[in-house]
Amino acid sequence: MTRQKYISLILILGSLTALGPFTIDMYLPGFTAIAKDLHTTANKVSLSLSSYFIGISAGQLLYGPLLDRYGRRIPLYIGLAVYIIASLSCAVTTNIDVFIGLRFIQAVGSCAAAVASMAMVRDLFPVQDSPKVFSLLMLVVGLSPMLAPTIGGYVIASFGWHTIFIILAVMGFAVLLASRFGLPHTRKPDPTISLKPRPILLGFKEVFSNPQFYTYALSGGVAFSGLFTYVAGSPILFMEIFKVSGEVYGWIFALMSVSFIGTSQLNSLLLRKYKSGQLVYFGLALQAIISIAFLFLALNNWLGLYETIGMLFLYLGCLGLTNPNTAGLSLAPFSKNAGSASALLGAMQLGIGALASMVVGEFLKDSMVPMVAIMAGSTIIALLILLIGRRNITELAENTDADAAMIH
Length: 408
Hints:
It is a single chain. 81% of the residues lie in helices and 0% in strands. It is globular, with a radius of gyration of 20 Å. It has a single domain, classed as Up-down Bundle (Growth Hormone, Chain: A), CATH 1.20.1250. The chain is an all-alpha fold. Helix 4 packs antiparallel against helix 5, helix 4 packs antiparallel against helix 8 and helix 10 (211-241) packs antiparallel against helix 15. It is built from 16 helices and no strands.
């Protein structure tokens, strides 16, 4: 593979992966405006974020078997078409309940891109390169939290929140064109893969029964729910509690992404000296220390705006270190059913994240303590899952395809 082709694939796969995060982040500065326009509250608007997470989680399980059965292209194109239509519908709705439902449909469409990109990483690159590829994808994805809320804040101030969803529809169409003309056929349809419920469930059971998968998928998903907690809680935290404007909130959100992106790229350098399993353990242990300190400071009311930004910056940096490694280690043992494995991984991660976002949206009102408590609790649970689960892994598949076959 030439360097130009490699970069092209990374950019297109990154755009597929980034579509969902961009859809999440870009409308966040509009929570107050949407609440006012649809005659509701910011907490009710936050349910549209939770419904989006639920939609992605459910859609992952739908697209995984479809991508294995029909190849990567057709399910991807259909999903993106659904996304475009739902985005345009969000732009014209006048009812908050309809808006929440449309966000669910929008998510089901967008997650086709997320599942396809993860499966194609496994199709196109050797197992030993997947953590590095995921880190590069995070660099592309990282432009979303850097750019989306900042752009969204100014777009909303100038043109209203409806314009956000028109822009998202245009982005979906651009990603569809890039996928059609820039991605190779990575997998032929496999008619031996059944789409009946029982074989699908048995396939997911086979994936989940792999000790390496459930250890790193669960620990990574629970740890990563801290990001969903932050995303769901940050509009209320900064715009309702700290009373910053939508534009300022966008810049704060962009600053936070620097930490996440920076450590995900540092991960690529660290992988030259350390193994993925070592980095996951170190990242989760550091995240636990930071989150416990964060909770202690919040409980004693010792955090102002700038101190809160600093603690969140440190916390999110840990996620940038652990997430690409848990994703790579979760998928390493699989080849034929990589689509189902990536779908189950995404469903678990997003399902846990949806639950966390719903809880924080319900309890975060006039204090940051509920948000920080969820972050600390999820991190401690993730670390315990890792410590217990890795005892059942006889040999870690992270270096070669031969290792992956041995584990599988």
